[in-house]
Each structure stands twice: as structure tokens, then as C-alpha cells.
From TrEMBL:
InterPro entries cross-referenced by the UniProt entry: AB_hydrolase_1, AB_hydrolase_fold, Sec-Metab_Biosynth_Hydrolase
Protein name: AB hydrolase-1 domain-containing protein
Residues annotated as signal peptide: none
Lineage: Eukaryota, Fungi, Dikarya, Ascomycota, Pezizomycotina
Superkingdom, natural source: Eukaryota
Organism per entry: Aspergillus brasiliensis
Domain AB hydrolase-1 residue range list: 7-235
Pfam families named among the record's database cross-references: Abhydrolase_6
PANTHER family in alphabetical order: AB HYDROLASE-1 DOMAIN-CONTAINING PROTEIN-RELATED, ESTERASE_LIPASE_THIOESTERASE DOMAIN-CONTAINING PROTEIN
Length: 255
């Protein structure tokens, strides 16, 4: 019996890997191994790290797992969508199988995440200017009103906790350009957060349509469903792990 794929959870801007702790506990209880990554650009001093740095860091983590023969479901949130899209180039399961190699990324899941066309930047997608809750100061970008824009649907005490855990992001990541469109070669899914105040649902809808995937899920959630409804996020990932496992078996059978 094939082992469960490893779920790699990639956060957005201003957040560290700790945001996924509850979701990871839930996934573990369902027999789904996971890791959560961190971006070098988040909280860095000096704030000089770029999108290229973040992509290279995530790619190294993915390669380390794939070289062990593991199949990966890559879950990207918000800014993490830009990072993950670039990091998976050449790491898709099907492409590696054609080279006689085991392991690979079997699915990319965009969870209220930026799926950006090649050559475009995050700032391009924001219309060329920072949003009202983003405050740029020199090489730093801070998140203001995180509870209102990022996680308005969790209890007040939790809002205070997670607001206190937000940190700065390097301004350079906003101008870095996307280098790869994985949806052409790797199966994808999109989780639309219908009560998102940071990344408007109509924009999410447009990006999901661009992926040309039938695996579109909807949650009545803020921008951070892994905080407000981790069980429902786990339900989706468990379902996708089952689907991706079948696809992976088909690839292996055709070697």
C-alpha cells in the first residue's frame, strides 16, 4: 500500500510556520504527515531578502523530501503562492517519472493564494500600490489591522495572540517576478475563502479559473482558514491526498 503523501504547508507574508501548528496536529491525527516552512524574508534583519531567496529556500526543502522518494502536496497561502509556484519548477511527479526518478510534487493547492502569471509581481497584482493594511517603511512592510483583514473570524483572545505573532516582511518580495506557472504541468486545486477581507473572493475566483482545475473548494472563512476552521481545511486536504494518491499510482504504473 502506498504511503500517504507529505503535505508541505507554506505561509504567506508576515507569518511564520507556527500558524500551521493546529492544522498540522489535525493532519497527523488523520495519518497525513506534514511540515510547515518559513520564508527567509519574514522577520529578517536587515530586511534585504528577496522573492528569489524565498523560492530557493522552499525549493531546497522540497528537494530534500523528494530525494527521499516522497510525494508532496504543496499547500500555498497568500504570498506563499508566488514562492511555491517558482519553487516547484522541474519537481513535478510526472516530469520526474519520465526521467525514471521517484517522488515529486503531485499537487499544488492554492489556499486564498496568489497564482501569478509568469513575469508578473505581487505588486503588479495589487495594482502597483500597497493595500490599506500594508505599511511600507524603508525596506520594511508591516501588516496593520491583521485581525480585521487576516483573521476576523476567530475569538478575540486568539486575535490578540496571532496579531502579536505577526512580523515584518521585506519590501523586496513585492517586486520580485513570478518565474513559473506550475498549473500547466502539475495538478492544482484552489481553496476560495468567501469572507476574505485581504484577498477579495472575486480575485480568487479569477485565479482559480486561470488554473483550469476542477478541484475548487469554498470555505466561509477569513483569509486564514487554517486558524478559524482547521478541521475543514484538513477535510479538503485529506480528500485531495486521496485523489492525488490515485494519480501518483497511475504515473508509477506507466513507468
Amino acid at each position: 500500500m502506498a504511503s500517504a503523501p507529505t503535505i508541505v504547508l507554506v505561509p504567506g507574508a508576515w507569518c511564520t510556520a507556527i500558524v500551521y501548528d493546529t492544522l498540522r496536529t489535525t493532519l497527523t491525527s488523520r495519518g497525513l504527515p506534514s511540515i510547515a516552512t518559513a520564508h527567509p524574508s519574514i522577520g529578517a534583519e536587515p530586511p534585504s531578502k528577496t522573492l528569489t531567496d524565498d523560492v530557493a529556500h522552499l525549493r531546497s526543502e522540497l528537494v530534500s523530501l523528494i530525494d527521499q522518494g516522497k510525494d508532496i502536496i504543496l499547500v500555498l497561502h497568500s504570498y506563499g503562492g508566488v514562492v511555491g509556484s517558482g519553487a516547484v519548477e522541474g519537481l513535478g511527479k510526472a516530469e520526474r517519472a519520465q526521467q525514471g526518478k521517484a517522488g515529486g510534487v503531485i499537487m499544488v493547492v492554492y489556499m486564498s493564494a496568489f497564482a501569478i502569471p509568469k513575469g508578473k509581481s505581487l505588486l503588479d497584482m495589487l495594482g502597483g500600490r500597497f493595500l490599506p493594511f500594508m505599511k511600507a517603511e524603508g525596506d520594511y512592510v508591516h501588516c496593520l489591522g491583521g485581525a480585521d483583514y487576516g483573521f476576523h473570524d476567530i475569538p478575540s483572545a486568539d486575535k490578540e495572540l496571532w496579531t502579536s505573532r505577526l512580523t515584518h516582511t521585506s519590501i523586496a518580495v513585492f517586486s520580485g517576478t513570478s518565474t513559473f506557472e506550475p498549473w500547466h504541468v502539475i495538478p492544482t486545486a484552489y481553496i476560495i475563502c468567501e469572507e476574505d477581507r485581504a484577498l477579495p473572493p472575486p480575485v480568487q475566483e479569477q485565479m482559480a479559473e486561470m488554473l483550469n482545475t476542477t478541484s475548487i473548494y469554498r470555505l466561509k472563512s477569513s483569509h486564514s482558514p487554517y486558524l478559524s476552521m482547521p478541521d475543514k481545511v484538513a477535510d479538503i486536504l485529506e480528500e485531495l491526498a486521496g485523489k492525488a494518491g490515485v494519480s501518483g499510482a497511475e504515473i508509477a504504473a506507466n513507468l
